[in-house]
What does this fold into?
Amino acid sequence: MNKEKPENIKPYHDDEGGKKEQITKMFDNISGGYDFLNRLLSARFDVVWRRKLTGKILSHQPPKILDVATGTGDVAITLASKAPDVLVDGTDISPKMLEIARKKVKKANLENQIKLFVGDAENLDLEDNWYDVVTASFGVRNFENLEKGLSEMFRVTRPGGYIYILEFSNPRIFPVKQAYNFYFQNILPLIGRIRSGDPKAYQYLYESVQAFPDREKFLEKLQEVGFIDVHSTELTLGICQIYSGKK
It folds into this structure.
């Protein structure tokens, strides 16, 4: 099957505006029920996946971390909770997602460790070579220009620093692959439509995962922008991958 490039997949096919504008609109629309639906639709596997991701990140004892596409702040909060000395900057294109993240950060009493700001992952208003680790969870699929977004993540990572990306992939094992595709294509959009109020958002999830250059192809993307020692770690029978690389 020929896949479209991920930047060609947009949530609202018939609407005007580029992918970036549509992604902002989509996440603003679903922000209120985002955390609940993540837990429900993933059967709480998203919690396990983020725990594995943050464990790998903190194994480097990084002083400064950038969480790109931070959403409602789950990864940033987990990192700061596990490592009291770490400083985490979280950026996202959706103001309403960040509103929820700020409330969660305040409730967790982590305002001294976590700074959140609206930003475009493909045009980060941040210094070169600044962060020890740059990470993104379920966000790079939503970049309008994948190479540009990854290049920005490379730019702000210090020499010797690391990138860690958590992203969906397509399982290859029978019958996991068939069950996964049926769930993502039919069940997940139905539940998402009922609970989120946005009928397009969870259909987009399936389409964007199908279009994403996962596994070896994504590792090649990381190498193309300059990362070395790239690796992928398979999670839950291939449903997710943790990608990593070094600058």
